[in-house]
Design goal:
Elements (H helix, E strand, L loop, with lengths): L25 E4 L2 E3 L4 E3 L2 E2 L3 E9 L4 E6 L5 E15 L3 E8 L3 E17 L1 E9 L17 E14 L25 E6 L5 E13 L6 E4 L15 E2 L8
Parallel strand pairs: 1-5, 2-5, 3-6, 4-7, 5-7, 6-8, 7-9, 8-10, 9-11, 10-12, 11-13, 12-14
Antiparallel strand pairs: 14-15
Protein name: Exopolygalacturonase C
Organism: Psilocybe cubensis
Length: 243
């Protein structure tokens, strides 16, 4: 049976990512990607990269990271991802970096993304850890991979807010569970204090499969700039930067 015909819960990863660490001037256009894990970049992407005009189904989304594991230095800059259709993927656009990392991720844009059946359309965490090896570690580190000039623009689609089990789930709760989330969130910004600047979600148009109001998760103590919506755990309310 073709993977596209399988129920979503049965889709299993057949590859982890596009291993782009250390590459320069990488451009990928007009792709159809079905049932892979991540379309991602890791650690070092110093010069311009672009992914455009593609269709992704059954994977873990358009991911940058994870960066900064074990205190390593990340350098990811000038990445453009645009004109992508995401269907039945776990994430739409995702960034993840480890607490205790170093370096910078800057000038990264996800633009013109259509999504359907996606539980986490926009997800940023600077507090990543490997849930497969245990609970979130306690840390007193003041370091983190700094992030700046992130833009999520023109996301249109349907948030999957009905019960589901993604194919890589082997625990209870699943590794992708977000404490406190309602399942209605179109944006989750899990940021690290004093390390994130100019992170904006703009022109976001989303509904939920159940028809419930769309929500967000964001801690206003972690970022002082306008993120394009009211930064709180509650309903999605646009602000000036999001218009």
């Amino acid at each position: 049976m073709h993977p596209a015909d399988l129920p979503y819960v049965e889709l299993q990863p057949i590859g982890w990512n596009f291993a782009t660490s250390g590459s320069n001037n990488l451009h990928a256009f007009n792709n159809k990607i079905v049932a892979v894990s991540d379309t991602s970049a890791n650690e070092v992407l110093p010069v311009q990269h672009a992914l455009r005009d593609s269709y992704c189904e059954g994977g873990h989304g358009l991911s940058i990271g994870s960066l900064g594991k074990g205190g390593s230095v990340a350098d990811v800059q000038n990445v453009l991802i645009e004109n992508i259709v995401m269907k039945n993927t776990l994430y739409g656009a995702r960034f993840k970096s480890w607490t205790g990392g170093n370096g910078l991720a800057r000038n990264i844009t996800w633009k013109n993304i259509a999504f359907e059946g996606v539980p986490f359309p926009i997800y940023v965490t600077q507090n990543y850890w490997d849930q497969g090896v245990g609970p979130k570690p306690n840390t007193t580190s003041t370091n983190n991979t700094h992030i700046e000039d992130f833009l999520f623009q023109n996301f249109v689609g349907i948030v999957k807010d009905v019960p589901y089990v993604e194919g890589s789930c082997v625990s209870d709760p699943c590794w992708y569970s977000v404490p406190g989330a309602t399942g209605k969130e179109v944006v989750i910004f899990d940021l690290y204090p004093d390390t994130a600047v100019n992170i904006v979600a703009k022109d976001i148009f989303a509904t939920t499969e159940t028809g419930a109001p769309v929500a967000v998760m964001c801690n206003s103590t972690t970022i002082s700039t306008d993120v394009g919506f009211k930064c709180w755990d509650g309903l999605f309310i646009r602000t000036k930067a999001g218009l």
